[in-house]
Amino acid sequence: MRKSRFTDEQIAAIVHEAESGARATEVCRWHSVSKETLRSWRAKYRGLDLHEARRLKQLEEESRRLKQLVAELALENSLLKDVVGRKG
Asked: Which InterPro entries match (predicted)?
């Protein structure tokens, strides 16, 4: 997945700006993002302050690493079962 050019703090500020009454089209133009991007950011970051946004990003990264670890261990387990199955 491509890394965003905006930090979590910037995204939360843009969403807050859009929610505080500025028109969505103007906010998108000022920050050079599409309406769809703003819509997805709103769905994810609505109501979050900066600290919560950082914590969300950390938890997503931790989840990604744990999923990768589980996949690697499942592959190793499968390979070991194949090796044991052939010997017997």
From this structure: Homeodomain-like_sf, Transposase_8, Transposase_8_domain, WH-like_DNA-bd_sf
